[in-house]
Amino acid sequence: MIHWRKSSHSMGDHGECVEVSTNTRTLFVRDSKAPEGARLALGSEAWVDLVRRVKSGALDL
């Protein structure tokens, strides 16, 4: 069973809510408003790179 945690940066009950779950090798990410929808599965290096790119604004639309 996967145990999900909502990001501390999520904006309340109806905002942009990201949830994460980890096991020994993989970090999972999903949209809490669509829990049965798509999920990302990332290794630790990919997660670090994703966070770095988000913080730098490289993924801004």
TrEMBL record:
Matches recorded under InterPro entries: DUF397
Pfam families per the UniProt record, alphabetical: DUF397
Protein origin, superkingdom: Bacteria
Residues in DUF397 domain copies: 3-55
Name of the protein described by the UniProt record: DUF397 domain-containing protein
